[in-house]
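During the second year of the project, the team shifted from modelling isolated chains to modelling whole assemblies. The rationale, set out in the original proposal, was that interfaces cannot be judged from single-chain predictions alone. As a representative example for this report, we include one of the complexes processed in the last quarter. Its constituent sequences, exactly as entered into the pipeline, are reproduced here:
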Amino acid sequence: MADKFKFGVEEGYDVLERQKVESPSMYRVYLLNDDYTTMDFVIFVLEKVFHKPPVEATQIMLHVHKNGKGLAGVYTREIAETKITVVHEQAQERGFPLRCSLEKE
Ligand code: TYC
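Output from the structure prediction step:
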């Protein structure tokens, strides 16, 4: 940290500012279709884990059901991974095979 500050002061504030605004990589979390997870549970997950309003949650669930996969949300890596873990745990507890996938943007 001390080195970075020294570097910024010596080289000018442009460098310091560019370092500050660099944004983290973002990751897409997809829900994957299967034949056993109930539609109600997928809607529940979209509402509770991904904070989708009820109508949008239903639309995403139906999209996944018809097309095989659908976007649940876009997050930084740690948040995306945590949400996937929560979904897999919740599904396992109920005996559902629901899975998510992660794709870097
Ligand atoms: N295909 C499931 C069914 O007919 C519903 C479902 C939708 C499952 C979306 C998973 O990510 C999913 N019960």
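The beta strands are 26-32, 69-76, 99-104. The radius of gyration is 19 Å.
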